[in-house]
Amino acid sequence: MDEIPRDQLTGALRRGAVKKHVAAIHVSGKLTLLQRKLSNVLLLNAYDTLTSRTRHQIDARTLCLMIGYNSNDMETLKQSLRGLAETVAEWDMLDEKGQQEWGVSSLLSYAKLKGGICEYAYSPALAEKLHDPKVFALINLNIQRRFTSGHALALYENCYRFVRTGSTGWWPLDLFRRLMGVDGSSYYETFKHLNAKVIKPAVAEVNKTSNILLTPETRKQGRVVTDLRFRIKENPQLAILDIDDGEGMRHGPVYARLRGLGVSDRLARQWLSSHGEDQVTAKLDYVESRKNVKSKVGYLSAALDGDFGAAADGEAATDAVPNLRAERLRRILEAVKARTPTQRDADRRLFLSQLPDGKAREDFTRHGWMSPLNAARIAAFWEEMSPGLLAGLEEVS
């Protein structure tokens, strides 16, 4: 993960020059984009107690919302969790005494869903490695949501941990294929195909989407490419603050409100760094005012991710059927979360083009899909996009 404050480190981690391979952990297997996102959210949720607890829990609906897919689709969640339990994580590194250590573990030792709660665990050996801030880089959830390609997210994950050294170092092509999940494919044994279908598209998406810029370089024996490395520098247009540089935010009132709501320490600091205290406060005020929200953390995540504004003060007072209206909004937000980032952008532009006047467009620009002035139009739009989405809510005007 990212560097954590030195006063929180103990033992060997307090030394200024502990020699460890940065690229200590490689995840094998052909993880889907959804599984990669799920793995990152589960790790972020568990990180604070990774070595002190043997089991971790997260509300299943909150988990789905944070990843960005329909929170009622438990079968997809089960399939993704099954994939993580079947995926192998391997490490090869130097320990504190300079001795070589190799190990292997399933990415999750187990996972289960019961009563709306997702419970999961890591093997003790893997938990120890993942908790080392010099081994694993924190993947910013606001950045990972933007990725639409599993290869691009995999490349980002494996390069981001090297951002402070400026280069990944040389990777043999067979290792790179394994990191990208294309090992075993005869098609990608040819570098020409690997470069055209995996490397170039993934680099382009990382450079366009994330907070780092990559430049690939190759090494040859004769005419044959044998190794690959990536030069890395920060993307000044999409740079995101290091959440651990903001130790002072732990003492602020907004941080305390987030923690009181059940948000983990790391996620609270990430949201404050990415969105700022004013925006988080506004979203908190709105979420805490809602009476029919089952998962306020998940609802807050949806609000921050979608840049939804607080509804007008008069909405609650004039709402004759608040339960139905809240249910309608919940279904619409879930439909929005289930769309890819590209689809969401297209949805917003399409809806804006259908609004009749400047006042309606201004309200939607400000409040997004929670726009009180456009509530009826938004409902009609999403019912047309997903027939049956609002079934049973016809009484809401």
From TrEMBL:
Superkingdom of the organism of origin: Bacteria
GO biological process, alphabetically ordered: DNA replication initiation
Domain Initiator Rep protein WH1: 18-159
Any GO molecular function: DNA-directed DNA polymerase activity
SUPFAM superfamilies registered for this protein in UniProt: Winged helix' DNA-binding domain (SSF46785)
Pfam families per the UniProt record, alphabetical: Rep3_C (PF21205), Rep3_N (PF01051)
UniProt family annotation: Belongs to the initiator RepB protein family.
Name used for this protein in its record: RepB family plasmid replication initiator protein
Highest classification ranks of the organism: Bacteria, Pseudomonadati, Pseudomonadota, Alphaproteobacteria, Rhodobacterales
